[in-house]
Amino acid sequence: MDLPRTASAVVIGGGVVGCSIAYNLARRGLTDVVVVERETVGSGTTSKAAGGIRVQFPTETEIRFSLEAIRVFERFEDEFGVDPGYKKIGYLFLVSEPEQLRAFEKRIALQTKLGADVRVITPADAQKLVAALRVDDLIAAVWGPGDGLAGPAEVTAGFARRARELGVKIVEGVRVESLERTNGRMSGVTTTAGAIASPLVINAAGPSAARIGRLAGVTLAVHPRRRHIFFTEPFPAIAGPVPLTTDVATGFYFRKELEQVLLSPGDVEDIGQDFDVPMDWSKVEEAVHKAIRRVPIIGDARIAGGWAGLRPLTPDDHAIIGWAPGVEGFFVAVGFGGHGFQHSPATGRYVAEWLLDGKPSLDLSLFDPGRFDRSGVRADKAPDAE
Ligand SMILES: Cc1cc2nc3c(=O)[nH]c(=O)nc-3n(C[C@H](O)[C@H](O)[C@H](O)COP(=O)(O)OP(=O)(O)OC[C@H]3O[C@@H](n4cnc5c(N)ncnc54)[C@H](O)[C@@H]3O)c2cc1C
Hints:
The chain is α/β, with parallel strands linked by helices. The protein has helices at residues 16-27, 60-74, 76-80, 98-113, 123-129, 152-165, 209-215, 283-294, 344-357, 371-375, and strands spanning 9-12, 33-37, 52-53, 91-95, 119-121, 140-144, 148-149, 169-172, 176-182, 185-191, 194-197, 201-203, 223-232, 244-247, 253-257, 260-264, 303-313, 320-323, 330-334. The chain is globular and about 65 Å long.
């Protein structure tokens, strides 16, 4: 496809976030949109996501984002013609410290008020949900039966397909190399395939968001951190379906993927990269060690493979959505950490409202791009391990 020379909006990044924004803009009538993707649609960190969707967030805005995601995923096939593989397998958090439980209880009150089904259950009840669990050292568990998962590739393909049908141009294998400004405001981008003039540039570059920000002289507090996921050979000894189960004490989580078990050590590591993600196979040991402590029978399973990806974290673990301070015409939707897949439907919807109606119908001040400057938290401060 030839690179369009002008556009009403250029979206940098064809991940799940960029494709959702492009689709929602087009659905609302702004069809003259170009998405520039340096590789292929959905090949960035979106391709590494575990697909989890939970309402178990600490803030009203994020809980509402998750509820919106559930609404969209429930009718995804009708709207996008793609089966997203949406399943309500539930999320189960295993709690061993009173302090952790108190933090959960505070959040559950808010989640329940907003209509989510989240409950504290006993360790014995947790074992009824996942028979293979060791629960003797737990004080409680937190169960969200409405939580679940869907396929990041399918969802991204759905957004991209409908966006294209509505007129959006998605160009692949093309990299944005510089951002152009005229009289202090955004006037377009220069790519490896030529220039596109546009008054509106949207940074949806995932782990590379800070690099794109720097092209406009804007510091964005997005810090990519590596996380591994491993999978076993078919392992019927743990019968599915299994909720996405997290051991809060160690960060270890697992779930069933067809006959295999997916497991992650919950690692958070700065590898000084925002694109290439080499595997560190020594992490298998860490994952298996944590797994056996919580699910002893996993000691009988064989690890068949794994992958690593970058989670674009921020210092307060909330995304950054809004106009970039100091550069008119530069909008950012970045820093989604470990929840960008599930928050992509709401992000697309509210970003489109913001850009087309002048403001979103939900208060998004939680995600304010200027908050780190005002709070005294330096934007370049590394996020705490989660
Ligand atoms: C191991 C792991 C597990 C995860 N599990 C979950 C989960 O269970 N649930 C969940 O909701 N989230 C999960 N996530 C997080 C989720 O993957 C991300 O938050 C989400 O995919 C971010 O989407 P994005 O579109 O912002 O980024 P990306 O998918 O990375 O898209 C950005 C795109 O921008 C492109 N790009 C960058 N620079 C340029 C440039 N200069 N020019 C052109 N294109 C450019 C990249 O090629 C990329 O395709 C997980 C992440 C990891 C690593």
